[in-house]
Amino acid sequence: MKDLLLELNNIAVQLEEAGFTVEADTCHEVFIKVAAKKKKSKKNTPTNPELYAKCKSEIKSKFDVYPSAYANMALVKLYKSRGGGYKSN
């Protein structure tokens, strides 16, 4: 995917340098749409939201700073140990 984005950007730059501004703008729009989809596709959601919420509240009470790498790691470990899973969107 990264190679595709780089190639699309290179094509847009070459079109712009050659004077084809409308075509270059179209390539840039496609580039932005593909890049946005790439970011959205990596989101994983819990398969059991109620269990996830319970585990999250437990972890928040155990850690002083919740949005941290250690707290998130503990949350995933606790959630999975209780039978939870994740699905990709």
Architecture blueprint of SSEs:
Layout: H1 2-17, H2 21-40, E1 44-46, H3 49-62, H4 69-81, E2 86-88
Helix pairs in contact: 1-2, 3-4
Taken together, the total number of domains comes to 2
Helix/strand-derived class?
A: mainly alpha
Summed over residues and divided by their number, the pLDDT gives a mean of 86
Which regions contain 5 or more consecutive residues with pLDDT less than 50? Answer: none
Based on CA atoms alone, the radius of gyration comes out at 21 Å
Q: In this structure, how is the largest beta sheet organized?
A: 2 strands, antiparallel
Strand fraction equals 5-15%
Order of helices and strands: HHEHHE
Helicity level: over 70%
Biggest sheet, strands in spatial order? 1-2
Number of helices: 4
